[in-house]
Amino acid sequence: MLNVILEELKKASPFGWEVTDTQTLGWEFYLIRHRLDQNRVKRVEHIWVKVFEKSGDGQFLGSAAGEIPPTASREEAAKLIAQLQRNAALVKNPAYELNQPSGKTGEPAELPDPAPIAKEFLSVLSRLPETEKADLNSAEIFVSSIRRRLITSEGIDVCSVYPSSMLEAVLNARQDGHEIELYRMYESGACDGEETLRRLTETLRFGEDRLKAVPTPALGKADVLFSTDAAAEIYRWFILRMNAALKFRRLSDWEIGQDIAPEATGDKVTVRAVRELPNSSENAAYDGEGAPVRDEVMLENNVPRHFLGSRQFSQYLGLSDSFIPGNYAVSGGTAEEQELRAGDHLEIVEFSDFQVHPVTGDIAGEIRLGYLRRGGKTTVVTGGSVSGSMNDFVNTLRMSKESRQYNNTLIPAATMLKDVTVTGAE
């Protein structure tokens, strides 16, 4: 079908086009406790076509995209392409140049066998340290080998092959007739067995602690420590504000070479786009537009260095050699993790929801489980909420030297925000 689509695109002659052919070989396992309920193997293909059309004597360049099923007829493919051309001509974006070949091409490689990755996930579940108070309720494992080929009218023909995995687990904890569930979803490339086991074991402990938690007191302003996946949302704020689209739309007021927090007394953040992270599901050699992915410093010690993003918005900003990053690494911590835990603070490990607004920097989260440490004593708490603004927290931010990875993002293992507003549940 791919060749048919390419023939019809050349026949239709839009200003430009991109075809992304993604083939996936996947293994899936569905378990009730540790008993296999069902499993299946899937092999699927998705072909997405994007066409570009100029209008207004070349002042505007619009685009439209749609999926053409591999089972479609030639007539159906031609009809959809024609419809995409009409839609693209209606879009009035300022004109920009499409990506050009980088000099590298890639022949489609064979899909690797996902079986070893699936086997490692099953091994992790078999090693869970379950007790009468906390155990595995159910789990779903999805392991895929993906081959993504991009062909464009400009001569780009590149192929990336990479694994992508997801583990969903429901864990139960019970005490004195009261039982709760904790849901976890882990995304990755391959399986880091020891790290996955550590996180699931940690969740079992959180479940047991949640059953003996007391209402969070109204703390007013407090230092809050983030040591689980919610911390990734904090650093996503830095990453998004270095995105070319947000900068062009004036949703980010950061400027190249200008310190984002000149009065900061805490740790300064460095964010790098990285080509590859171990076990990330975003280790493609090229982005979705065919631009080569590379290591690049985006933010260095609180100073913006490079905005990155799509071809369209990068060109609007006058950027060259830009790309859409897949992986990010954050550094800048000066304290040991143990040092950050030494004083009075609230460590929150479970939220009902936690968000950081990419434009305003406002944070908001409802506490499900936390550890309140005051005067050397630790109390397990639940309920209440946190709020504040990253525009303030960036001045006194503290980060650990140790790191922790959440799929495609490597961040400090512990992050301390100072003077967070904590509303109690009492």
Describe the structure in your own words.
With 426 residues, the chain is α+β, with helices and mostly antiparallel strands. It has two domains: 2-209, PmbA/TldD superfamily (PmbA/TldD fold); 213-426, no CATH class. Helices cover 20% and strands 41% of the residues. The protein has helices spanning 2-12, 74-89, 115-126, 193-210, 231-240, 244-248, 311-316, 337-340, 390-393; strands spanning 16-32, 35-55, 60-67, 134-152, 157-175, 178-188, 214-215, 220-226, 270-274, 296-300, 303-304, 327-331, 345-356, 362-374, 377-382, 385-389, 398-399, 403-406, 409-412, 415-423. The strands form three sheets. A six-stranded antiparallel β-sheet has the order 3-2-1-4-5-6. A six-stranded mixed β-sheet has the order 11-10-9-12-19-18, covered by helices on one side. It has a five-stranded mixed barrel with strand order 8-13-14-16-20. Helix 1 packs across helix 2 and helix 3 (115-126) runs parallel beside helix 4.
At a glance:
With 426 residues, this protein is an alpha+beta fold. It is 20% helix and 41% strand.
* Oligomeric state, counting identical vs distinct chains: single chain
Q: How many structural domains in the coordinates?
A: 2
**Number of E strands:** 20
How much helix is in the residues?
A: 10-25%
So how many helices?
9
